[in-house]
Amino acid sequence: xxxxxxxxxxxxxxxxxxxxxxxxxxxxxxxxxxxxxxxxxxxxxxxxxxxxxxxxxxxxxxxxxxxxxxxxxxxxxxxxxxxxxxxxxxxxxxxxxxxxxxxxxxxxxxxxxxxxxxxxxxxxxxxxxxxxxxxxxxxxxxxxxxxxxxxxxxxxxxxxxxxxxxxxxxxxxxxxxxxxxxxxxxxxxxxxxxxxxxxxxxxxxxxxxxxxxxxxxxxxxxxxxxxxxxxxxxxxxxxxxxxxxxxxxxxxxxxxxxxxxxxxxxxxxxxxxxxxxxxxxxxxxxxxxxxxxxxxxxxxxxxxxxxxxxxxxxxxxxxxxxxxxxxxxxxxxxxxxxxxxxxxxxxxxxxxxxxxxxxxxxxxxxxxxxxxxxxxxxxxxxxxxxxx
Length: 388
Ligand SMILES: Cc1cc2nc3c(=O)[nH]c(=O)nc-3n(C[C@H](O)[C@H](O)[C@H](O)COP(=O)(O)OP(=O)(O)OC[C@H]3O[C@@H](n4cnc5c(N)ncnc54)[C@H](O)[C@@H]3O)c2cc1C
What we know:
Layout: E1 4-10, H1 14-25, E2 30-33, E3 48-50, H2 51-54, E4 65-69, E5 71-75, E6 81-82, E7 90-93, H3 95-108, E8 112-114, E9 117-124, E10 129-136, E11 139-150, H4 158-161, E12 173-182, E13 190-194, E14 204-209, E15 215-222, H5 223-226, H6 231-242, E16 247-257, E17 266-267, E18 270-272, H7 288-307, H8 315-339, H9 344-356, H10 364-374, H11 378-386
Parallel strand pairs: 1-2, 1-11, 2-8, 5-13, 11-18
Antiparallel strand pairs: 3-7, 4-7, 5-6, 9-10, 10-11, 12-15, 12-16, 13-14, 14-15, 17-18
Helix pairs in contact: 1-3, 1-7, 7-8, 8-11, 9-10
The chain binds flavin-adenine dinucleotide.
């Protein structure tokens, strides 16, 4: 480890490793600091991604693809199941291997990656962030950089240390719980989603197969609703009812910021990416691909700023994000607010309408249409979505 780098990335998740990869490709000297002993561990994720999002970054490979997904099954509160036709394929990843590979690729491009390095603060002048302080091998070191990229996930503190307001309202912070379980007899090419008060009020419950009769089974509920009953309790009840014979291999709880992107994701000497910037899709709670997209943007903008010795250009990252996924997430956020108000009776009647359609018309678009008919207020937002 040197004392000074062009760019220091805090966090070796998908967003951080991707930022490091692209910054290093552009010729910057890059250091990734990861607090955990091993990249990719522990996993706090359902691990589902779509092919279209993944492929531009990395060729899907058997070593980190646990299951290939071709179908969705959506289960209404009354048990009625809808199987919409979906375009394309998706994957349930093995993130231990996937995250590791992303970090390896960043290292291949020239980034240094150091684990067991806990960043506990940023250094700054009045104008700019100038580096980090890090606990490493029993010492507290101060490392200098031209730019710090905060990719420190949902519990991010890098932005706050630099003076950015990173608060998420209780309503937007989804409280999630998940098990990875064996002896789960579900179709291995199908992701299952359960909706309704019984399963996950203000959210949804998922069963994502991982091959060999294993699956990630989890749910997320709005944190303000989970005060009455914790996400883990909902999950235990579901497991008892649906998979009483399952062996639980891992169990976790965590937060998902299903909020709008932070108002500020860059400032002189600092950029925030991934969950740290609240770049998760507010409807699905998926943040792997959006974190990687933001990581790439931030990495390239940062390296160019270093090359041109113009640290005032970091705002370009913010603009690029807003012009692409940011504005879409803004609309998703508005849609989420309407969808989460659906009552069980709304969801049951959407499922009933769908099941009456011929099979080839049972698409995700049609599902949305049924939802819009239930809540005409959605129409404007949905139309904007299709015309963007
Ligand atoms: C239960 C659950 C299920 C989910 N399911 C899905 C899904 O199916 N699909 C999907 O796309 N998304 C899913 N998500 C969201 C997804 O996991 C995140 O959006 C994604 O991991 C964000 O990537 P990231 O790189 O921003 O952060 P992370 O992957 O969280 O990486 C942040 C890294 O920073 C490190 N770090 C934190 N603080 C410090 C520090 N001070 N010093 C050094 N290192 C630090 C952490 O150890 C971690 O390795 C799920 C989330 C949860 C909780």
